[in-house]
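Exercise 7. Given the encoded structure of a 309-residue chain, write a plausible sequence.
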């Protein structure tokens, strides 16, 4: 192939030739879709694949180093927030940071590793908006598989041009600065690849990266190896005296408490989902997901309020 096949927009520093690449002579014109044993792919150079990823990924990191909103955690609360905020304010640069390789948090299953997902009314309206089918059981609805909700909302969120998600990336710290009134304000997040973050005890000198944003929304779930991240960091930085600690299960108290309590807990930081139960000492609800959807939407409403004041 000619050099132009290898590099469509730039010249390589080393000139590859047909001889030193030892490639077959092939172009996009050779692509043949044939399922009778003669399927042929368009020819590519291996470096094209690397460059296709590297260029986009690092351009995204460069561009999103300054974001409008960072959402920490892509569980049911974080994704519901991203959907509502991304749709309502398409001009905002929204960056989701998710520690896990697989976004979705606990919302791939219902409860106790069972597949159906229960959503109390009126949160079924959000399922209708997303186009997720359900069975009506009167006070609540049931989605036949939690993954149907999570894959649907993920596909819609990721298709929004203003939303970027970086998964396998952990928030390791918060940027906390004084604002013009001398108040402590959360102004960004400190990030690292999760595999790096998990190895700080065994490897030295693995400094992190930063993203600044006027609004940070934290939805990292209840306490656990990765959970309640910002709430715990607020305690260790003195922004919060102590954790309220999640209380026992009470569905009827818990869901409205989480939705209605979703708010800017310190300037610049909105807390949503089960992380808020650790902050406020609210009950858990167990396997009903309407509270997470409502809390995510309320977090988006709070963010919009901040941008409008
Ligand atoms: O990987 C975490 C998960 O996907 C991610 N996360 C946690 N710490 C992070 C960090 N940086 C980046 N430092 C981080 N990402 O946050 C996501 C949290 O999702 P989740 O499903 O655990 O929380 P949620 O609040 O969205 O939903 C909670 C669902 C629950 S728990 C519960 C109960 O225990 O009673 N009931 C419900 C409905």
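Solution.
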């Amino acid at each position: 192939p000619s050099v132009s096949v290898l590099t469509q927009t730039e010249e390589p520093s080393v000139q590859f030739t047909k001889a030193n690449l030892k490639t077959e002579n092939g172009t996009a014109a050779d692509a043949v879709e044939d399922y009778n044993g003669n399927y042929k792919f368009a020819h590519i150079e291996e470096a094209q694949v690397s460059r296709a990823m590297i260029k986009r990924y690092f351009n995204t990191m460069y561009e999103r180093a300054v974001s409008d909103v960072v959402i920490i955690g892509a569980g049911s609360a974080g994704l519901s927030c991203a959907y509502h905020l991304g749709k309502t304010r398409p001009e905002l640069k929204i960056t989701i940071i998710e520690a896990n390789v697989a976004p979705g948090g606990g919302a791939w299953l219902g409860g106790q590793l069972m597949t159906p997902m229960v959503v109390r009314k009126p949160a079924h309206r959000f399922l209708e908006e997303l186009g997720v089918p359900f069975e009506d059981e009167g006070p609540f609805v049931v989605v036949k598989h939690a993954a149907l909700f999570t894959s649907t909302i993920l596909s819609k969120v990721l298709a929004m041009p203003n939303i970027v998600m970086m998964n396998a990336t952990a928030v390791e710290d918060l940027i906390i600065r004084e604002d013009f009134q001398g108040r402590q304000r959360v102004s960004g997040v400190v990030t690292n690849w999760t595999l790096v973050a998990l190895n700080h005890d065994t490897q030295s000198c693995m400094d992190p990266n930063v993203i600044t944003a006027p609004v940070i929304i934290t939805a990292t779930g209840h306490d656990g190896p990765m959970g309640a991240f910002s709430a715990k960091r607020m305690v260790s930085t003195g922004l919060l005296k102590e954790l309220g600690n999640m209380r026992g299960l009470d569905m009827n108290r818990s869901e409205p408490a989480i939705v209605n309590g979703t708010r800017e807990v310190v300037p610049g930081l909105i807390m949503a989902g089960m992380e808020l139960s650790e902050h406020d000492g609210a009950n858990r609800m167990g396997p009903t997901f309407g509270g997470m959807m409502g809390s995510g939407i309320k977090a988006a409403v709070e963010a919009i309020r901040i941008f409008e004041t």
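Remark. Residues 72-78, 97-100, 105-107, 170-171, 219-222, 226-227, 229, 273-274, 284-286, 289, 292 surround AHZ (CB under 6 Å). Students should compare their own answers with the one above.
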